[in-house]
Structures are given as C-alpha cells and as structure tokens.
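We emphasize that the prediction below concerns an isolated chain of 319 residues; any contacts that depend on oligomerization or on bound cofactors are therefore not represented. The input was used exactly as deposited, without trimming of termini.
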Amino acid sequence: MRMLWRRPNNMRNLTFGLIVLGCVLMSSWAVADVALFKGQPVSVAGITIGGWGSGSAVEASERVYEGTRSVKVTTQGLYQGGRIDYRNPVEIIEPDVDETSYVHIALVFPSLIRQGSPTFVTPGFGAKSVPDEPTPVASVSPYYYEEEIPTRPKSNLLRIVLESADGKAVDAMAPVPFDPDDDGWYKISIPFKALGLLGQSSFKVSRVLIFTDVPDTFYVGLITTVKDTSPIVVQPGDEQVVAVGDTVTFQAEAYGGGTPLRYSWNFAERSGDDGEDAVGRIVSHVFKKGGDYNVKLTVYDIWGIKKPATAIHRVIVND
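Result of the prediction step, given as a token string:
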C-alpha cells in the first residue's frame, strides 16, 4: 500500500462519525409527480435533444436509471450544455404546489476526481481548495492512504433552466451532492421556490437546459417533480477520548431526503462561544487543551425550507 501523504510519527488521525438520518431511495422520502424524463427512448417520449452553445446532449443506453435510456450531456460551463425540447409542453404546476415541491434530477458521472488535496475552510457549501486545485464541497483530512481517498464529481454546481410554452424562463443552481446514493446516482432536488415557480398558476415546460460550473460529461436518468416533506434528523456520535494534539476527523453521513445540506461545526473551545468553527461534511480539528468538549453539529437545508437539526458529540481530551 503506497501512502500518498506521509504522516508525522507523533500524530494520530482519529475519525469519528455523526449520522444524519434520512432515506436513501427517492421512493421512501418523496412522491413523484410530473415526469419530464424517465428513461424512455427519445422517439417514444415526444422529445428532441441536442446541444446548447458548444455543449451537447445525445441519447444513451450504457447508463440507465430507469427505463432503457438516458441523456448523455457534455457541458462547457454554466451557459453551454444540453437541452431537451418537448413537442407537447408539460404542465408542472399542480393544485398542491407549495414549498415542499421540487424538480428532482438523477445524474451519474462516469469520471470522478479525488478529494485528497489539503483544504482550508470558508463559509458556503463546503471548503475552498488550495490555489490551482479543484474546489471540493467539504474539507477533508490530508491523512489518507491513497486507496482510501474519497472521490467526487468534477462539477460542483448544476444549473437548470426551464422554459415555458408562453416564453417564460426560470433557472436555479444547486450544489452537486458530496456522495451518490447507494445506487450510484447523484440526486439533486431544486425547490420550486428557488425557481420562482410558487404563486404561478401555470408553467408548461417546453424546454429544459442543463449545465455545470466546469466542463464535464454526465448522464441524466430522471427529471421529475416531487413532494419532499422529510425532515433532517441528526443522531449524536459516541463519546470519544483523545489526546491533546491528535488530529480528529469528524464525518457526518447525510441524506435528508433530496435536500442539499450544509454542515456547521462548533468545537466549543471557548466558553459561551456558539459560533461556526468549520463547514463541511468531513472536517478535521486539533484540540490544543485538555478538557471535556461538546462538539456541536448543525445541519441546514441550503434552501432554508426545512428546519435545521443539531447533535452534540462529547469529546474528552486528555493532556
């Protein structure tokens, strides 16, 4: 086994997990409503597909989410990608549309990159990378064996545009999830609220445009509207005992339905401090003083629709 980074002999890397409970499969947390693409052959679905700008979209069968087909999209940034046109525009405004209504997309990326470069934490969806490195969506400890370094899609953001039969257009961007579901597909749900569709009496989709923030290729297996009322639920991890100077890695495994989540950590090193010390699904921290610490994880819905959830993880640090 070849080590990608060498760890100093006097440093231990300890990994603890806090579990954010949700459901992996869409069927267990959401009810599908209006399908815009569900794996039918293009000739049967009543759609045409193609590129937008210098991007492209073609029918594919090598990676399928449901049905027998997918749409293989190649993007060149946030404004050049793939398009799906509908011969018969599809109405997506139902009588029960509210804040729990989402446009749900299932993607799979044939090419992934490693997450292992050292990072520094900044506010937002995750962490910024060191200069000239890709931007990950969470900070990670640099102490991994090469075989254990997690991977992620090259794309950080997905942008969709919906055009209507009467000439309207709405768009929104969402972060690409840190991990796929158990079936290997990345699920992204964008709320009607973010698309500006709440309060609309009608929106008949005549075209869908799909882009990513960096050039990439991926397969679209499903586009549908869903209702997602699942809450974010967090369970605390077990009490842990570490030593001063240990590099402690905290990891939250999160689903929370189809909602993109933001992880905020407070290591309680200062009395009465309830601020934010780190952001990301995986973060590392070195405790510099002995004592009992209540590490607080707060998980937020980035759209601000679902209520945040909090867990306290007790860490005993020995001198």
